[in-house]
Write a structure and sequence with these properties.
Elements lengths: L1 E5 L2 E3 L5 E8 L7 E7 L6 E6 L6 E3 L7 E6 L4 E6 L8 E8 L11 E2 L3 E5 L2
């Protein structure tokens, strides 16, 4: 089982990034996929989750209206589009797979290694 995040980097405040989570080794359409992030010195926090079919999504308050989660099960990939990025969004972003709908990291079975997003001028 593998989840590999990509698309992170350095972006200016107000900028845009699109993160990808490429999966392999399991049936993506049997899992809900969440994005989490961990800023330096802080605990890992929930960002967004999408259900197995892609029809249901849920966002943290910090992500609502700015971030969009989507998935393409045929490509075995989940995306997180992030607009209007701010310095507070600086963190390592992780994607994770869960067999149950959840915003708690404890309920996720498989994790990627993370991709660093830095928002700075």
């Amino acid at each position: 089982v593998q989840l590999v995040e990509s698309g992170g980097g350095l972006v200016q405040p107000g900028g845009f990034l699109r993160l990808s989570c490429a999966t392999s080794g399991f049936s993506l359409d049997e899992y809900d996929i969440g994005w989490f992030r961990q800023a330096p010195g802080k605990e890992r926090e929930f960002v967004a989750v999408i259900n197995w079919s892609g029809y249901t999504t849920l966002y943290a308050d910090s992500a609502k209206g700015r971030f969009t989660i989507s998935r393409d099960n045929h490509k075995n990939t989940v995306y997180l589009e992030m607009n209007s990025l701010q310095p507070d969004d600086t963190a390592v972003y992780y994607c994770a797979a869960s067999s149950s709908w959840s915003t708690s990291s404890r309920d996720y079975d498989y994790w990627g290694q993370g991709t660093l997003v830095t928002v700075s001028s």
